[in-house]
Amino acid sequence: DGGITQSPKYLFRKEGQNVTLSCEQNLNHDAMYWYRQDPGQGLRLIYYSQIVNDFQKGDIAEGYSVSREKKESFPLTVTSAQKNPTAFYLCASSSRQNTEAFFGQGTRLTVV
Amino acid sequence: GQNIDQPTEMTATEGAIVQINCTYQTSGFNGLFWYQQHAGEAPTFLSYNVLDGLEEKGRFSSFLSRSKGYSYLLLKELQMKDSASYLCAVEITGGGNKLTFGTGTQLKVEL
Fold first, then answer.
1. What does the pLDDT look like over A32-68, one tens digit per residue?
2. Which of A77, A101, B38, B105 has the most beta carbons within 10 angstroms of its beta carbon?
3. B29, B31, B32, B35: CA torsion to nearest 10
4. Cβ within 8 Å, pair B97-A99
5. Do residue B96 and residue A31 have CB atoms under 8 angstroms apart?
6. Nearest chain B alpha carbon to A101
7. Residues of A with CB under 8 A from a CB of B
8. CA angle centred on B93, ends B88 and B99, rounded to 5°
9. Using one digit for the tens of pLDDT, what is the confidence trace for B41-76?
């Protein structure tokens, strides 16, 4: 079945450690996105990529990094520079022609 | 900057009709999406409006007025499972078709 997969669903890390969140899609979509969601708030764009080996900062990119070495994969690294990393992280993808975005199930990151 | 406004919370009765409004002021506009999100889950696509007018899809309809920067989502014959957050998102031109989301409207359906 085609879809977009995020892993793990829950992740705990100690303060000061970098952590990488996985996002894989087999929908053959060119574009991929990372959003952050905090309680009672909408989704805020962290990074997005329209094509392999290229990505752009979103509205809240500070303290995060990404790579897009393969079309199917768009991992997000939450670095120790991110001041408030505890949040629900959502990955999404869309094709260029049909811009409806499909979301993964999300990763809830807790930094203690 | 981009600004998308939705009511924070709404309550409605099972079987009734509810209208969730969204107003936007954005630099560039390609279209407007509505997503449904249950707590702790991924948003799921409901509708997409690019032209003015009403798009109907079963119990859900969505309306767009580009000149007024206004959209609404209409839910008919409400069911308990419709209790969720409803997210309005604008697709911005010139930025790789990225989406800018409102804060979402938490809908509670009561008996």
1. 999 999 987 789 999 999 999 999 999 999 999 999 9
2. A101
3. -130
4. yes
5. yes
6. B45
7. 31, 33, 35, 40-45, 48, 50, 56, 58, 88, 90, 94, 96, 99-106, 108
8. 30
9. 999 999 999 999 999 999 999 999 999 999 999 999
Instruction: Provide φ and ψ at B80, rounded to 5°.
Output: -60, -35
Taking an 8 Å Cβ-Cβ cutoff, which residues of chain B contact chain A?
Answer: 4, 8, 30-31, 33, 40-45, 48, 87, 89, 91, 95-104
Sequence-separated (6 or more) residues with CB below 8 Å from residue B20: B6, B7, B10, B72, B73, B74, B75, B86, B88, B105, B107
Q: What are phi and psi of A50, to 5 degrees?
A: -95, -15
CB A90 within 8 A of CB A37: yes
DSSP B18-85: EEEEEEEE-SS--EEEEEEE-TTS--EEEEEE-SSEEEEETTEEEEEETTTTEEEEEE-S--GGG-EE
One-letter identity of residue A86: T
**Amino acid at site A67:** S
Question: Measuring CA to CA, which residue among A76, A25, A70 is closest to residue A48?
Answer: A76
